[in-house]
Input
Amino acid sequence: MTNSKRTLWIFAGLALVCGFLLFAAFVFTGIGRLTAPAPFPTIDLFATLSASTPVSAFSPAPITPTATSAFDFSEPIQPDPKTGVTDIPSASAQDGPAGQIVFTCQIYKYQAAEQICIMNADGTGYRRLTTDDSKRHFYPSLSPDGRRLLYSAFRENNVYEIYSYELDDGSVDRLTNRTGVLTAPEYSPDGQAITFTRWTVNSDRYRIMTMERSGNNPNNIPNIEGWDPTWSPNGKQILFASDRNGAVQLFAVKENGKGLHQVSNLPAIRGRSDWSVLGKIVTYSGEAWRRELYIMNADGSESRQLTPTGGNSQGPSFSPDGDWVAFTAYFDKYSDIHGCEIYIIRTDGTDLRRLTDNDYCDYQPRWGP
Output
């Protein structure tokens, strides 16, 4: 074989090997993407977080836009192809709602170091409240007078405590003492009681609890298992999520355990919901990364999709006047696991606005005065 032919064979062999390696890289990358778990934001805890629904099980009824709808629900909102950003306006103080919103801010992009932040309802005045970088703080909510807030924070293995934070001076009081993983605390409408979720490693059960605002006299609601409780506007019932009848739905019950009844009938309820002073309930439902907010009457009737399709919307909270809803979504950064921001929308589905714009997740908003 001549030198020129040998050189040609060598080059051909190298090209064949390189081509094979390139093909293999594409194949294994594709397999890795198919087998790797989908990116999942840290929205809510335990059962609320880990629950999943097969695609085939989620088939909501089609939504017919009304004359007041600002969006066409038949097609997802698409970002600008050049900038990758969805054209959703930010809120403004001139025409926006009043009050303040507390939320979990994942400023270190790390769940174990989440903090509690607060801002005005128009998105201004964003500031961090908690100061311990080494512990997880989440599930905040404001008192009815807007002077203090509750949140859950890590204390030790299998122990999360509930804390009260005074907005005037930043003082913090621990209300509980090593009774399990306590989450989702909320004041009653009169500010005198607190409801929350308790989970213990020994029982592996989620119980709906109540206690005095001081933390004294914690009690289970008899025979009730569930999570993410919130009070009715008159303080006589507690709304919560539970899988007691199979699929997760919303239920309401009196504090003494009587009057239990199912409220929702949606295909894939998650957890955190809210009950407005106008008698409406808002929740979120759907398979992972395709969640939407739904609003309904207090008895579960006339349920309708509130958010425009395509934002993976979740964790809703009503404004104090009941006319707006704050929530977490990914409209502007859908493919980014750290891209969840806080948005607001009117209860008729119009006037969607973004409140936050950070390179980390802001989520679990709770609105107060």
